[in-house]
Design goal:
With 135 residues, this protein is of the alpha+beta class. Helix content is 33%, strand content 43%. It has 3 helices and 8 strands, in the order βαβββαβββαβ. Strand 3 and strand 4 form a beta hairpin. Helix 2 runs antiparallel to helix 3. The protein starts with a strand and ends with a strand.
Length: 135
């Protein structure tokens, strides 16, 4: 069984190209790259950016735990996972999180990606503060 991962939190911008390169392999038949981006509206208010803060050590630990739980839950024969979250100020349209997965089959890739993002949202100690226009 081949399972590989990279997990990190960065204090600057994150790049999809690094995730793409990490999961690229002819061993997999399906890959998915999920990105979270800063949108311009929330609750009918104009957003101009978001500041993310985190407890880095606990974030990495939670990402590791979520990764391990995903492997235990799905028991896919062969997969790879890339998780990276930004820390600090993120402008409109910029990427705040990347989750890239590759598996043998597309249903596996969708299931794995969805599980990881949902668990991160629930459990990882990452805090965001939206900055609004006219504040």
């Amino acid at each position: 069984m081949l399972h590989t991962k990279i997990i990190d939190i960065k204090k600057n911008s994150i790049k999809i190209s690094i995730a793409e390169e990490f999961i690229k392999s002819s061993s997999y038949g399906a890959s998915i790259i999920f990105t979270g981006t800063v949108r311009n509206q929330n609750n009918n208010r104009s957003v101009i950016g978001i500041a993310y803060d985190s407890h880095d050590e606990l974030v990495i630990k939670s990402f590791e735990e979520i990764y391990q739980e995903s492997q235990d839950k799905f028991k896919f024969e062969n997969s790879t996972v890339f998780i990276e979250h930004v820390k600090g100020h993120v402008k409109l349209g910029e990427t705040s999180i990347i989750i890239a997965v590759a598996c043998k089959h597309r249903a596996q890739a969708y299931d794995l990606s969805r599980f990881i993002i949902e668990e991160i949202k629930k459990r990882s100690p990452i805090w965001k503060k939206e900055h609004y226009e006219n504040e």
